[in-house]
């Protein structure tokens, strides 16, 4: 049996600079992450969390690896749902590569368990967030506007 | 019950009708599918073929066709000798309204153990579907050069 893992690849017409900014800038996050943003100073070992504007913390963890414009690895645990939180920490790897004519963005979100509702939950969330991100960078507006 | 081997979801600022057209119109497919064109009358039981430079890459048969919501076809890769020996797999598109746009789910399943087609399509779909989203939202596909 393979471990629970979510893998998503998308190609975006942008630059590594602009994609990095969109991934790490709070004001940019809010636009495509349904109002939420990552709260972090983007250094290895720094605390990391996803927060809603009303202050609720959705997820928290720590930056494990960071290479600007190339790679971020986050130790990531859910904070709002007891059952998901009880699954413990997952590992999210975000990779940016220059492809021919576009930027390749890969998100791999995995957890060291036999089964995982948390990975099931993020498997629904990531396609929305990453579709929004691609739309925002290519057209200036998101695909799924916040209600 | 085994899970489908490949599932990809993308949200696109478009309508189900425009997305259906983009998936089934030969001239339109050629613009974003990296010079591959899809030809069929899209009726259940009909043949569909995916050609590049006049060469058939994939041989397909329409299994379900419910415009503009759902389509399914068999998929037999014939440009590569190893892949050609494999049994056909199955592709299903599900198109649902979502927010002000469309949710597209692509499911590709039914591969033989040790399939070499599976890693090939797993690399290919994100490229094709990223290009599809770009052309529907911006009018321009992704400009990759394809390794023939």
What would you say about this model in short?
The complex is a heterodimer of chains A (147) and B (148). With 147 residues, chain A is of the alpha+beta class. Chain A has four helices and seven strands, in the order βααββββαββα.
Task: Write the SSE topology.
The complex is a heterodimer of chains A (147) and B (148).
Chain A: E1 5-12, H1 16-24, H2 26-32, E2 37-39, E3 47-51, E4 57-67, E5 71-78, H3 82-85, E6 90-98, E7 103-111, H4 117-139
Antiparallel strand pairs in A: 1-7, 2-3, 3-4, 4-5, 5-6, 6-7
Chain B: E1 6-12, H1 16-24, H2 26-32, E2 36-39, E3 47-52, E4 55-66, E5 70-77, H3 81-84, E6 89-98, E7 101-109, H4 117-138
Antiparallel strand pairs in B: 1-7, 2-3, 3-4, 4-5, 5-6, 6-7
Textual characterization of the structure:
The complex is a heterodimer of chains A (147) and B (148). Chain A is α+β, with helices and mostly antiparallel strands and 147 residues long. Chain A has helices at residues 16-24, 26-32, 82-85, 117-139, and strands at residues 5-12, 37-39, 47-51, 57-67, 71-78, 90-98, 103-111. Chain A has a seven-stranded antiparallel β-sheet. In chain A, helix 1 (16-24) crosses helix 2 (26-32). The model of chain A has no long low-confidence stretch (mean pLDDT 95). Chain B is of the alpha+beta class and 148 residues long. Chain B contains four helices and seven strands, in the order E-H-H-E-E-E-E-H-E-E-H. Chain B has helices at residues 16-24, 26-32, 81-84, 117-138, and strands at 6-12, 36-39, 47-52, 55-66, 70-77, 89-98, 101-109. A seven-stranded antiparallel β-sheet of chain B has the order 1-7-6-5-4-3-2. The longest helix of chain B has 22 residues, at 117-138. The chains are: A alpha+beta (147), B alpha+beta (148). Chains A and B meet through strand 1 and helix 4 of A and strand 1 and helix 4 of B.
